[in-house]
């Protein structure tokens, strides 16, 4: 197991928890989502049946995946679009690089997308010193991020290089939109993620609440969409169901304010749209996840982030917006995608409280899947904190009553466990008397000697 990854994860947890100011913010996020999720069933006449229906559509897609994929490609290409298949993240970045090289000196406008994080596009552009602009404001206004409205406005003002602004002024947001429009008109290339790929019409679905993302693809010359193959859904009729589940669990609205279904580049008599449109379909280990009989249901995720918001672990870790794409789903996905050698520690980053399963609109049993990951990690020899030899020693101690009653062994046991217990919690003291002693003193009953 990679000790560096484990140490980094634990240090991030400790650093965030030490910031006492984050507690009320993170608790407020939890309360916000709890209120949303209490009302989710009110949006649907038959809430449980709605979730079952969505799960069925996902099962239907994966069961006949090849035919749906061919249908999507044929419809999309017939409208003038281009589909590129890639096996891994590095190949996806290479394909994007080819397009960028052929279109020199054009402004890059990116969206905040989990798929773009997955392929490492942001870090690649920074390392190669290629300037880009974040078009949508999900980074600033997504409910999962515990930033005050004033802080968000300051961040946007800094981006626009505005020294003075009215506190809480919406004018800054209007300026940002105008700034985006001006940049998009400069022969720009827009790169976004997809919320869904609709097979029967060959369409790419984009959801947002701010209205800035539509500026990207409406005025850019070239639009590149990067999507995982698990985003595929059968038809437009199914799209309404998934949109409703996503929006109700993310924002507490029945539908997102902006829903766009793109079927290709601009056509005759259309007012706006890109001249060229590409869809890069990324596998990146998803077919390997499908091979796991137990964990494959994680691909049903629609990325509403409700589980991430209510998770007692990740709602604190994600108070740092640099960890925006981490959550309970990643605890299951990343060990399977990256390998347990690099990411097995995420299989143990869960308290198994079950809140994530309660709020999941796709009825994914996340705690159960994490336990399957832990089992697989243990079978491959990757442990966190306690190994087999340690467990054998503890077993011998717990099997002997006299050993546990010994002050020396109790002290050693406390010191041993305290290392793994951490510095953020107070380790409870052992009782001065064991249950056996209290029982015999109270009732005068003596059992056989150990």
In short, what is this structure?
With 450 residues, the protein is α/β, with parallel strands linked by helices. The protein has helices at residues 3-18, 22-39, 47-63, 65-78, 89-102, 114-119, 121-127, 138-141, 149-160, 171-184, 213-219, 236-250, 286-290, 306-310, 314-317, 328-338, 340-343, 355-359, 366-379, 388-399, 401-405, 407-421, 435-443, and strands at 82-86, 108-110, 132-134, 189-193, 196-198, 203-208, 222-228, 232-233, 258-262, 276-282.
Task: Give an overview of the whole structure.
With 450 residues, the protein is of the alpha/beta class. Helix content is 52%, strand content 10%. It is built from 23 helices and 10 strands. The protein has helices spanning 3-18, 22-39, 47-63, 65-78, 89-102, 114-119, 121-127, 138-141, 149-160, 171-184, 213-219, 236-250, 286-290, 306-310, 314-317, 328-338, 340-343, 355-359, 366-379, 388-399, 401-405, 407-421, 435-443; strands at 82-86, 108-110, 132-134, 189-193, 196-198, 203-208, 222-228, 232-233, 258-262, 276-282. Strand 5 (196-198) and strand 6 form a beta hairpin.
């Amino acid at each position: 197991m990679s000790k560096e990854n484990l140490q980094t994860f634990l240090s991030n947890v400790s650093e965030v928890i030490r910031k006492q100011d984050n507690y009320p913010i993170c608790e407020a996020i939890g309360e916000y989502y709890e209120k949303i999720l209490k009302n989710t069933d009110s949006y649907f006449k038959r809430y449980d049946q709605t979730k079952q229906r969505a799960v069925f559509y996902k099962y239907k897609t994966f069961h006949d995946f090849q035919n749906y994929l061919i249908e999507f490609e044929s419809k999309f290409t017939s409208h003038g679009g281009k589909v590129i298949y890639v096996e891994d993240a590095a190949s996806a970045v290479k394909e994007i690089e080819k397009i960028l090289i052929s279109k020199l000196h054009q402004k890059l406008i990116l969206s905040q997308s989990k798929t773009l994080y997955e392929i490492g596009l942001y870090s690649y552009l920074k390392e190669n010193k290629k300037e880009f602009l974040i078009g949508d404001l999900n980074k600033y206004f997504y409910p999962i991020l515990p930033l005050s409205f004033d802080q968000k406005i300051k961040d946007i003002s800094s981006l626009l290089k505005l020294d003075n602004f009215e506190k809480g002024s919406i004018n800054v947001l209007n300026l940002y939109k105008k700034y985006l429009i001006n940049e998009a008109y400069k022969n720009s290339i827009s790169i976004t993620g997809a919320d869904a790929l609709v097979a029967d019409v060959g369409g790419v679905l984009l959801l947002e609440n701010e209205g800035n993302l539509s500026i990207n693809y409406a005025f850019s010359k070239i639009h590149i969409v990067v999507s995982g193959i698990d985003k595929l859904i059968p038809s437009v009729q199914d799209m309404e169901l998934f949109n409703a589940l996503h929006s109700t669990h993310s924002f507490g609205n029945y539908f997102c304010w902006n829903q766009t279904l793109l079927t290709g580049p601009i056509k005759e008599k259309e007012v706006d749209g890109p001249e060229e449109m590409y869809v890069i379909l990324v596998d990146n280990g998803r077919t390997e996840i499908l091979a796991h009989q137990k964990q494959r249901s994680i691909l049903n995720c629609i990325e509403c982030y409700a589980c991430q918001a209510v998770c007692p672990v990740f709602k604190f870790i994600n108070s740092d917006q640099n960890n925006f794409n981490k959550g309970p789903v990643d605890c299951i996905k990343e060990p399977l995608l990256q390998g347990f050698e690099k990411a097995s520690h995420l299989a143990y980053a869960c308290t198994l409280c079950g809140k994530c399963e309660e709020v999941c609109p796709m009825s994914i049993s996340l705690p159960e899947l994490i336990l399957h990951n832990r089992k697989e990690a243990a079978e491959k020899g990757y442990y966190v904190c306690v190994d087999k030899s340690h467990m054998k020693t503890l077993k011998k101690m717990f099997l002997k009553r006299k050993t546990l009653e010994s002050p020396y062994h109790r002290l050693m046991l406390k010191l041993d466990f305290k290392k793994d217990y951490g510095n953020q919690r107070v380790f409870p003291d052992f009782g001065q008397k064991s249950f056996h002693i209290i029982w015999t003193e109270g009732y005068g009953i003596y059992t056989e000697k150990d």
